[in-house]
Amino acid sequence: MMRMNLVLLVGVVLSALYLVHVQYESRHLFSELDRARSLAHKLEVENERLQVEKRAQATSARIEGLAKSRLQMRPANPAITAYVAYTPGAADQGSTANPLIVGRVK
């Protein structure tokens, strides 16, 4: 009878220790889940902010202003536009003058 009580006591103590361990792990995992949710929310807010900033940077007026100021570009108009006519025989005659043409395919 004494052995049976001792085995049951050891079983109860081990069960109690296991229960405490499971509760600790549960709390730990719940706090990690809460941190992950918080981080996901922060990342979502940051993503929305970056999307708004991206849209603001890509406006046509801003791009046109940058093209004028940094690249010294100007709008095309007929006064400064040069039109080039294509002649089919010109590629065969001047192939040695064009450095982009390496060889002819026959």
UniProtKB/TrEMBL annotation:
UniProt entry keywords in alphabetical sequence: Cell cycle, Cell division, Cell inner membrane, Cell membrane, Membrane, Transmembrane, Transmembrane helix
Domain of life where this protein originates: Bacteria
GO BP: FtsZ-dependent cytokinesis
Annotated InterPro entries: Cell_div_FtsL
Keyword Cell inner membrane attributed: yes
Cellular compartments per GO CC: cell division site; plasma membrane
Main localisation: membrane
Subcellular location: Cell inner membrane; Cell membrane
Entry keyword annotation includes Cell cycle: yes
Pfam families in the cross-refs: FtsL
Topology in the lipid bilayer: Single-pass type II membrane protein
HAMAP family assigned to the protein according to its UniProt record, in alphabetical order: FtsL
Function, in words: Essential cell division protein. May link together the upstream cell division proteins, which are predominantly cytoplasmic, with the downstream cell division proteins, which are predominantly periplasmic.
Quaternary structure (record): Part of a complex composed of FtsB, FtsL and FtsQ.
Family, per entry: Belongs to the FtsL family.
Protein name per its UniProtKB record: Cell division protein FtsL
